[in-house]
Amino acid sequence: xxxxxxxxxxxxxxxxxxxxxxxxxxxxxxxxxxxxxxxxxxxxxxxxxxxxxxxxxxxxxxxxxxxxxxxxxxxxxxxxxxxxxxxxxxxxxxxxxxxxxxxxxxxxxxxxxxxxxxxxxxxxxxxxxxxxxxxxxxxxxxxxxxxxxxxxxxxxxxxxxxxxx
Length: 165
Known about the structure:
This protein is α/β, with parallel strands linked by helices. The protein has helices at 2-23, 30-37, 80-86, 113-126, 139-150; strands spanning 42-46, 52-59, 65-69, 91-95, 132-137, 155-161.
């Protein structure tokens, strides 16, 4: 009986080791990801503290501005069909929130709505977009909603697409 439990223990140990080996995914190389997914319109806006936000400012530069904010587990790439369709009439600004896309982690470790609202505000000030429409999907809808509540004077319209909250 001792021998049986010894073999069961070895099999379980091998299954655990194999499970960890299969489930392990190393971090991706940041430079490789930027080379693959950044475009000619990509910018990396330095907000200080080690945080650089991936932003695209596309479309009609003198058109009304529209800011697009993606949902959780997503990136600014979500909005590419909107950019293609609306870019002839609007200045389209999209960004990767911290923890998403090419922006990467927020060194502060803060991923609350208040932090995202401050980040969006800083980005729009750096892009010199004093008034704009804002659209958000899922979590980005929650960010858009909170932004609009805190900065109503800067928002000309709010579009919520399957928004959080």
